[in-house]
Amino acid sequence: MDERPPFPFSLIKVGAAALMEKTSISRGIVVKKTFILAALAAIAVVTPAMAEPPVPAPIEDHAKMLRSDDPQLAANKKLVYDMYRILLQAGHWERAGEFIAEDYVQHNPNVENGLKAVQDYVRESRPQIAIEPVLHLPLVWIMAEGDRVATTFVRPREDENGQTYYTSWFDLYRIKDGKIVEHWDPALKTPEMQRFNPNTTRMPQK
Hints:
By secondary structure, this protein is α+β, with helices and mostly antiparallel strands. 37% of the residues lie in helices and 21% in strands.
């Protein structure tokens, strides 16, 4: 149920009546007051709609999203997609070497550089689950250009009142010789992020 206080339409009616009572025969004043009434009406229509931001919709056709006219770009996107699916979603840390280079450079301040640090981070932050054929994390888009692959995910969060809201999370990867060699994201150094499990961000099933 919507607990927001009702929009004060009565105040608009009172203001409109007061303006109409003072309407002058002067053409300029009439035009000015007509504009004010129109603005008040626009506020009454727009304000309730703006109070409910849209819930972002993850992409459903992953196969289409992974395609590219450039075979190398398609391969780079598939590498990152499978890394999410097998390593980050399913938690199979022992397979990290299939995707991550030994000299991997990590710009997330919660994880050290190198393959072993990635393995330790995944092993300590989430349980292993079955590997699924598709990614169920709320992926908005994946794109590739040159040796870089960027992803965008929906990130559900709770405000101080316990109400769910949605923001976005971005990752950028550099690919070399079929492995991920570098990673950037906007993570801050916090205890929460040091044990973050992305499976907690899955969207409710329709």
